[in-house]
Specification:
about 350 residues, alpha/beta, 10 helices
């Protein structure tokens, strides 16, 4: 199936892909991705050459590039973990980001038609969210749907959508214990729904099929310290999701989940996953109540201000759980400093002088 004649947001969206291998998977996405600019973040050995199929417009960053661009601040970007993808968010100059893993293939809808995941994410982001009052017919802005009887008219305008969280057919995004007890479970259920996650409700954000408005929420999309040299892995997207959601709630922004689906092609090793997740499985029992109790000061009116405040709270409240959270809180500040250096406020040059 061909992409629309003029692809939506062609010059306003970057596709960010973290990888350690050749990107043959892009061939199947060609009809949908080729018009867009790709940012490839190469993890692992920087001397390895990653092959990208011909015809794609892309830039590729490896660890050497990250070190060169960020200098001493490069230590906030994870190594040997897909959390490195957030470097791509930082160097992008576009308003929107779509990020996808290299084991995610084009899914088919129940009629057998290829799903253009990117197009659906864009639709989600360009229509409002309804975090303050739940619409029982789900997203009221989709074609053929509306607000149901009893929905307050004063809330029907909705709020800007900051995040669009997509789902997966085939291999579900399970943690290691669930993988171990259900090794053959596959998700075959296609639910044709998009819904706004209500204000005050956290969710487990998966980074393998995700889009967001970089201008609205980008600085909060830090995927933490994971992988090489860290006591935890596979919580990078979860951490970003919890931070993002409490900041969206504070700033009056929306987060949607549901469509689009991708086809998640391969299960990762549950024993390796257990080793990475082991501490997180215990820690999350304290991390979740922490995020549920976060109240950001009303003086915090930008994502950066909120994120700095959140980093202080992480240091004050979570460092008693493990010393790792001291390091993470410091990395959160380093990330914001690096973000601001590469993305100066409009009207300012990187050196801080006015244009």
């Amino acid at each position: 199936m061909a992409a629309p004649a003029t692809p939506l947001l062609k010059d306003e969206l970057d596709i960010v892909i973290p990888t350690i291998r050749n990107l043959d998977f892009l061939e199947m996405w060609r009809p949908f991705f080729q018009p867009y600019h790709l940012i490839i973040v190469q993890d692992g050995d920087p001397s390895k050459t990653i092959k990208v199929p011909d015809g794609f417009d892309y830039e590729l960053y490896n660890r050497n590039d990250i070190n060169k661009i960020l200098g001493p601040r490069a230590n906030c970007i994870s190594f040997k973990d897909s959390a490195c993808r957030c470097f791509g968010y930082m160097v992008s100059k576009k308003k929107y980001i779509f990020t996808i893993d290299d084991d995610c293939f084009v899914a088919k809808d129940p009629s057998g038609k290829d799903i253009n995941a990117l197009e659906q994410h864009i639709k989600n982001l360009l229509s409002p969210s309804t975090p303050f009052f739940f619409n029982t017919l789900y997203d009221p802005y989709r074609e053929g749907v509306d607000f149901v009887r009893g929905y307050p008219f004063s809330l029907r305008e909705g709020v800007p959508t900051a995040v669009s969280h997509g789902l997966w057919l085939n291999i579900p995004d399970y943690d290691a214990p669930t993988q171990l007890v259900k090794p053959l479970e596959r998700n075959t259920r296609y639910v044709d729904a998009v819904l706004t996650i209500p204000k005050g409700t956290l969710f487990p954000m998966c980074g393998m099929n995700l889009a967001f408005d970089r201008d609205l929420i980008g600085p909060a999309m830090y995927f933490g310290l994971m992988g090489d040299g860290q006591p935890i892995g596979r919580y990078d997207d979860m951490w970003a999701g919890w931070c993002t959601k409490v900041i969206c709630d504070h700033l009056g922004l929306g987060v949607k989940t549901g469509l689009p689906y991708i086809y998640h092609s391969k299960a990762s090793n549950p024993f390796t996953n257990l080793r990475k997740e082991y501490k997180g499985i215990f820690w999350q029992e304290e991390i979740i109540p922490f995020f549920q109790s976060v109240v950001l000061p009303k003086e915090c009116t930008t994502v950066q201000q909120c994120y700095r405040e959140l980093a202080k709270m992480v240091k004050a409240k979570l460092s008693k759980v493990d010393g790792y959270f001291d390091k993470l809180a410091e990395a959160m500040i380093t990330w914001i400093e690096a973000w601001d250096e590469l993305n100066p406020p409009k009207g300012k040059l990187p050196n801080g002088n006015a244009k």
